[in-house]
């Protein structure tokens, strides 16, 4: 097993701990009065380890679709014994995972989206444009379509769409055309060949700005291979549905489309769905979430970005499931607050 290179620094760790603490530091409903923390993207276990250390009465349900990541975090978290439950699952499967562990609701959830440094460092996974490897890019290598299959079979319009939307690549159509020309000669099987092809398709002046010319194409392929956006669209509402009252969810996104899905899912539940002209909420129409990051997403400080380049594009959003007054009906908060209804 390849050891992760250097020190992996969890992104916005202190802020994540601060946001989760009120939900985890309270009497829990899990056996022994413990609270439940779900790490939807356990990765190398950096955030998970810090939560377990900060909250000795909390148990972890740690998900990851990557079996190698789980093997690393299993070793890292071994000392926490029966407080740790690691599960090989895609994060939209959380509602099915919990009952298998005898759990119904959870107190805190973290999603640190995207790829781990382990995946980027392991040459044979094909995520990195700087290393030559077979074009795989699956986070779960046990299933699904590879980047090689996409590059060698998608049509010009489909390749262009993926590169433009997921990679925000200005030269999407030119790159797609170059891919199609090249694969007519021989299948494209290596990340180095693809990176070179992308570089050669981009006008020379544009190659000098915005980092490595192949970065956006590799990001786009990775998102397509792993169905990242459609999975995220299902996963976040499903996660909110299993929060206990007062439970909190924190999301770290690294792509504008992921962050938009997060923002919209939170906003939909943070506003009233009742008639605008009523001064009080009707039963079941009140907001169910309270936004903890009002006024937009939070970003990493310059100091953190200097220490940890991965933090440069992070956007953090967090929300809490509103606790109902005893005896009130779900979604009923009585007098409507002026900001309950969204724009
Ligand atoms: C950025 S890393 C998490 C790093 C972690 N917070 C830490 O401190 O070590 C993201 C992890 O999420 C996993 N992942 C990405 N999409 C997933 C999904 N849909 N379901 C489950 N795991 C996923 C990846 O395999 C990767 O290990």
From TrEMBL:
Alphabetical keyword list: Cytoplasm, Methyltransferase, rRNA processing, S-adenosyl-L-methionine, Transferase
Binding sites annotated in the UniProt record for S-adenosyl-L-methionine: 45-47, 64, 91, 112, 119
Annotated signal peptide: none
Top-level taxonomic group: Bacteria
Reactions that this protein is recorded to catalyse: cytidine(1402) in 16S rRNA + S-adenosyl-L-methionine = N(4)-methylcytidine(1402) in 16S rRNA + S-adenosyl-L-homocysteine + H(+)
MF GO annotations: rRNA (cytosine-N4-)-methyltransferase activity
E.C. code: 2.1.1.199
GO biological process: rRNA base methylation
First-level EC class: transferase
A Gene Ontology cellular-component term: cytoplasm
Segments for region (Disordered): 320-343
Locations listed in the record: Cytoplasm
Keyword S-adenosyl-L-methionine: yes
Keyword Translocase appears in the UniProt entry: no
Free-text function comment from the UniProt entry: Specifically methylates the N4 position of cytidine in position 1402 (C1402) of 16S rRNA.
Family recorded in the similarity comment: Belongs to the methyltransferase superfamily. RsmH family.
Official protein name in the record: Ribosomal RNA small subunit methyltransferase H
Gene name linked to the record: rsmH
């Amino acid at each position: 097993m390849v050891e992760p290179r250097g020190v992996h620094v969890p992104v916005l760790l202190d802020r994540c701990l601060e946001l989760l603490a009120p939900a985890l530091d309270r009497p829990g409903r899990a056996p022994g009065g413990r609270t439940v923390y779900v790490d939807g993207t356990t990765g190398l276990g950096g955030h998970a380890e810090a939560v377990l250390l900060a909250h000795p009465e909390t148990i972890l349900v740690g998900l990851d679709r990557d079996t190698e990541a789980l093997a690393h975090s299993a070793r890292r978290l071994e000392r926490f014994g029966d407080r740790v439950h690691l599960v090989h699952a895609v994060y939209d499967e959380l509602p099915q995972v919990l009952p298998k562990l005898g759990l119904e609701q959870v107190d805190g959830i973290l999603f640190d989206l995207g790829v781990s440094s382990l995946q980027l460092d392991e040459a044979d996974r094909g995520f990195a444009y700087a290393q030559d490897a077979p074009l795989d890019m699956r986070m779960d290598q046990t299933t699904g379509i590879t980047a090689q299959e996409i590059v060698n079979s998608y049509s010009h319009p489909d390749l262009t769409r993926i590169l433009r939307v997921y990679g925000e690549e200005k030269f999407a159509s030119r790159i797609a055309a170059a891919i199609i020309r090249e694969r007519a000669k021989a299948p494209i099987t290596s990340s180095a060949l693809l990176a070179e092809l992308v570089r050669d398709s981009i006008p020379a002046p544009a190659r000098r700005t915005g980092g490595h010319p192949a970065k956006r194409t590799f990001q786009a392929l990775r998102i397509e291979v792993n169905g990242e956006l459609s999975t995220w669209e299902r996963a976040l509402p499903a996660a909110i549905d299993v929060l206990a009252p007062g439970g909190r969810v924190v999301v770290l996104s690294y792509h504008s489309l992921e962050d938009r899905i997060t923002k919209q899912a939170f906003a939909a539940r943070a506003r009233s769905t009742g008639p605008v002209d009523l001064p009080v909420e009707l039963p079941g129409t009140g907001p169910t979430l309270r936004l903890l990051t009002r006024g937009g997403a939070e970003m990493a400080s310059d100091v953190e970005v200097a220490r940890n380049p991965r933090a440069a594009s992070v956007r953090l959003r967090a929300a809490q499931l509103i606790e109902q007054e005893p005896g009130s009906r779900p979604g009923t908060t009585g007098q409507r607050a002026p900001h309950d209804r969204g724009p």
